[in-house]
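Structure tokens please, single chain.
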Amino acid sequence: MAEVHRISQAAYDRLAEEHRDLTGRGRIDIADKIEQARLLGDLKENGDYHAAKEEQGKMEGRIVQLWGIIEDAEIIEVAANGLVSPGCIVELRYEGDTTTEKMLFGSIEEQRDGLEICSPGSPLGKSLEGAKQGDTIVFAAPSGAELTVELVSVSVR
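Here you go.
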């Protein structure tokens, strides 16, 4: 059974657009690079050719990865009800700290605005999902230490 990717509509749209771009313009551009490199001569010692083929392999890997996510995506609504759900931004304050930390709650596919990701599958993420502003969350870190965080804010962008 394929892994279900719970992502927001915005993330789905970004990934689908990247997939369309790579399967269209991306493949054409890389084919042109390979053709230009072939014109330079002997392929055995042609650095441009080998670099273009490596780039092509990476791009094809990304195309397959994107298709796997898009094909098995479950579009979720980013909750505007103030509860932590995938796609929202959480602001946390760890016990004993005076500063806060903003994170994007969700999978890496939600990445935007240069924010760090808090995965729903992580110990912190499992404890945060469904929480609301002002809640205090206690969770076990991978090291085994018990950590306490205050959920300062939950926002949707």
